[in-house]
Design a protein that fits this description.
single chain; alpha+beta; 60s Ribosomal Protein L30, Chain: A; 6 helices; about 55% helix; about 15% strand
Length: about 240
């Protein structure tokens, strides 16, 4: 009788222990979840702080770039005023004085463009205004134009790059075996004139010939090819 009673007691005790064992597992799971959320919160807080720092840094860099762009724009406009008497380069509102008046008087406004780019102030000439077809010898009209420009370039101290370009029509002569030689010869001719005739300091000049590379228009049309044949004089912002 006692043995049966003891067995029933042991059985109930075991059942009680088994019925309460889930609490340990549950407690372990809650502890693990708590640790997970603590770690997640710490990581999220650190990431939020890092993102905030990145936002501040990027904002400062954007402001610096805006200031630099504004400064470059002012420098280019100042170049335009010094060289050509242009008060508003973006709108290209020229005065009637100086270089632009010179172009208008000689009906050359459609042959010469004044542009600004990331390097500085560019003067772009169609090749026909400076050179006869297939030649690197400057025409009389071209010499007059270069003299007018050169006088203004002498008055400033900025570096100058002279670049020659052609269309994609092949040339093959004894003097110019390809468009590379023709474009380089034309740029060099302009540089030599500025140096030896107008006494522009040689150390301020750079020369390059690109042949048919870097076209600004289509080579499929006559007008496009005419636009691609050009000389560009760029006055660099310092």
């Amino acid at each position: 009788m006692d043995l049966k009673f003891d067995n029933r007691q042991n059985k109930k005790k075991q059942e009680l222990e088994l019925s309460n064992s889930w609490i340990i597992t549950y407690s372990d799971m809650i502890t693990i979840m708590l640790c997970f959320f603590i770690v997640f919160f710490i990581i999220a807080d650190n990431e939020s702080h890092s993102l905030q720092q990145m936002k501040v840094l990027l904002s400062a860099q954007v402001e610096n770039l805006q200031e630099e762009n504004l400064q470059l724009k002012e420098e280019r406009n100042e170049l335009a005023r010094k060289i050509f008497g242009i008060e508003n380069l973006n709108g290209q509102q020229p005065s009637r004085e100086g270089f632009l008046a010179f172009l208008e008087e000689r009906d050359l406004m459609d042959q010469v463009e004044i542009l600004q780019n990331e390097r500085g102030l560019m003067i772009r000439f169609k090749d026909s205004v400076l050179f006869p077809s297939g030649s690197a010898d400057v025409s009389d009209q071209g010499l007059e134009l270069l003299e007018e420009i050169g006088r203004k370039l002498v008055d400033i101290n900025n570096p100058v790059i002279i670049e020659g370009y052609t269309d994609n029509v092949p040339i093959q002569t004894a003097r110019y075996p390809s468009n590379w030689e023709l474009s380089t010869a034309r740029a060099t001719t302009v540089a030599r004139y500025l140096i030896y005739e107008l006494k522009l300091p040689e150390e301020r000049l750079s020369v390059a010939g690109f042949g048919e590379q870097n076209p600004i228009d289509s080579n499929e049309t006559y007008d496009g090819r005419a636009n691609n044949r050009r000389i560009e004089i760029t006055v660099l912002t310092q």
